[in-house]
Amino acid sequence: MKKQEPAARPKSKRSLRPLGPQVRRGTSPLAVTATVQDKTEFQQIVHELQVHQEELEAQNEELRETQQLLEASRDRYADLYDFAPIGYTTLDEKGHIREINLTGATILGRERSRLLGTLFSVAVAKDDLSAFHSHLRRCQQASGPETTELTLAVHGHNPVPVQLYSVPIPDLIGQTTMYRTAITDITARKQAEKVLRLAHDQLEDRVRERTAELAGAVANLRKEISERERAEQALRELSARLLRTQDEERRRIARELHDSTGQKLAALAMNLSLVGKSAETFKAPVRKALAESLTLLDQASREIRTLSYLLHPPLLDERGLAAAVRWFADGFTQRSGVAVTLEVPPDLQRLPEEIEMALFRIVQEGLTNTHRHSGSSTATIRLVVDQNHVRLEVQDAGKGLPRSPAKGHMDALGVGITGMRERVKLLGGQMEMESGSHGTTIRVTVPFAGAAS
Predict the structure, then answer these.
(1) pLDDT digits 0-9 by tens, 155-165
(2) CATH of domain 87-185
(3) Which residue in 33, 40, 59, 262 is deepest, having the highest Cβ count within 10 Å?
């Protein structure tokens, strides 16, 4: 630290002259007094000179210490500059090298002493010369840093990719004639970029290959889906034909039972009645057998008539769904003892034949399942028709339908549930089923535009 200088002392304007050690005899008292004063002033001046000399020596010591600090700082700066991990150089406006550190000289592949004053462009690859000169022009025009990447082609060395980072150095009048430039070897980065590009290209190739494979797989899948859709469509058409065939066969059998078998049984009853008129002439066993035959014939006639109606109720064709459902519900209550509540609009108009047949079969299957599986003593049938849909609901209050222990769904009902779903699906509708300890509910919705009157 620099010492604080003492306050300046006024310098003596008198010139120094030697004084004798003694005062001559005969000198006047006034002269003696003057001589004593001159000696006192001389001693004071000498003292001031000694103090000033000490101050100068102290200042010289501070200067020596400062010089040593400056030299140490300069040495440290030189070490930092020369041995920095990147190259540093100072270029003039023409691109001549004015200063360069050891790292920069190593990157350029020449001794530092031979580089000073030479053009930096000598070390630049031919293909990048225009980029280097453009970098210099931008440095002249800009007030901030400029960055350029190019390749150095030094004789006897492999090409070195570098990044130039230049900052203009304005002079005292604000003009720029020199540029400090950092030279960074970006070989490792370029190699990493090359590896990354290679990996990216390989990945793109794999993506293209995988995309082509996926496209092929998608095409095959679409083809398979199309084939399956055709097979599902064929199955639906087959199922529809089977259901129509089944209904037609039921209608035919019902007609045969009613028109043929029923008529034969009626003729047989008439014949037995004629025979019965002569029963008094028969023996007792014969009369008993005749009476039992008439009873069995009557029972068989009623069962065949009921079976004929169950296979295809004539009311479904003659009066429509509402009448057929009422007839079936009444007969079902008589046969099973299950009380059935009907909620059907009294003015329900006729529906298309396929809808009436499907809904009647669902009512049949639903009530049959109620009797066989639920143990419920009551059931409810609701039928609602609006402008867009026909809705049917069959509900009981039993223990629910049995489920498969392995799969957890209602497989024990066989083809009944499947047949109901298939009928609804063929009509473009939906079917839902809920079953549990509270009972079972079947809900069916079938689209039908203009169903309401």
Answers:
(1) 777 899 999 99
(2) 3.30.450.20
(3) 262
